[in-house]
Write a structure and sequence with these properties.
8% strand, two-stranded antiparallel ribbon, alpha+beta, 4 strands
C-alpha cells in the first residue's frame, strides 16, 4: 500500500462522483450489453461414471429393530412428539440406538428411540440426551439452546412407549450420557 497525494485523492473522488453522468446507463429492453448476455453454460445431461468394486466389512444389524422400535413409539419422535408420515405412507422417524451398534449396543427395543432426523443428529452428537426419568437434557455446548428448547416436547420430557418393557433402559441411557452427551 502506498500513500496517495492530495491531488491523486481529489482526482479519484472527482471521477467517482461525476454528477454529469447518469447513475445507471439506460439500455433498451430488447437490447443487451455486449458481453453480458445470459447464456446457460453447456453441460452434459448424462455422464458415464466409473464404477469401482469394493469389499466392505460392517456390523450386521437386525432388520426387525426398526419395525419394533417404531411400533413401540407409535411412529412418533420421542423428542419432538411429531408423527410425520411421508407421501408413501412411511414414518419419517428413525429407530436410533441409544448405545450405538459400533459400541456393541444391542438391537433390542430398550436400546432404541424413535427419532426424527434432526433429533437423531443432535442425539448422536451429544447435544441432547435423556435422564433415567426421560427428562430431555440439552447440552450447554449447543449453539442455539432456545431453538432446541422450541424443538423438543413442551413439557421437556421424552415420549415413552406404553409398555414398561419397551422403555429405554437406564443402563443404555447412562452409557449415552457418559460417552456421548456433552453436558
Amino acid at each position: 500500500m502506498r500513500p496517495l497525494s492530495p491531488d491523486d485523492f481529489n482526482r479519484i473522488v472527482t471521477l467517482g462522483l461525476n454528477d454529469r453522468e447518469p447513475l445507471l446507463p439506460r439500455v433498451d429492453e430488447g437490447a443487451s450489453l455486449s458481453g453480458f448476455e445470459e447464456v446457460q453454460a453447456p453441460f452434459a445431461f448424462e455422464q458415464p461414471r466409473e464404477r469401482v468394486d469394493t469389499l466392505s466389512s460392517r456390523i450386521v444389524r437386525d432388520r426387525i429393530f426398526r419395525r419394533v422400535v417404531l411400533r413401540a413409539y407409535d411412529e412418533r419422535c420421542t423428542i419432538s412428539g411429531l408423527k410425520l408420515i411421508n407421501g408413501g405412507g412411511r414414518a419419517e422417524v428413525a429407530a436410533a440406538h441409544i448405545r450405538p451398534v459400533e459400541a456393541n449396543g444391542p438391537d433390542i427395543v430398550s436400546n432404541g428411540l424413535a427419532l426424527s432426523g434432526t433429533a437423531h443428529w443432535m442425539f448422536d452428537r451429544g447435544l441432547i440426551s435423556l435422564s433415567d426419568d426421560l427428562d430431555i437434557l440439552i447440552s450447554r455446548q449447543t449453539n442455539d439452546p432456545d431453538g432446541v428448547r422450541a424443538f423438543i416436547n413442551k413439557d421437556g420430557r421424552a415420549i415413552a412407549p406404553r409398555r414398561l418393557i419397551e422403555r429405554p433402559h437406564p443402563h443404555f441411557l447412562r452409557w449415552h450420557r457418559e460417552h456421548c452427551f456433552k453436558p
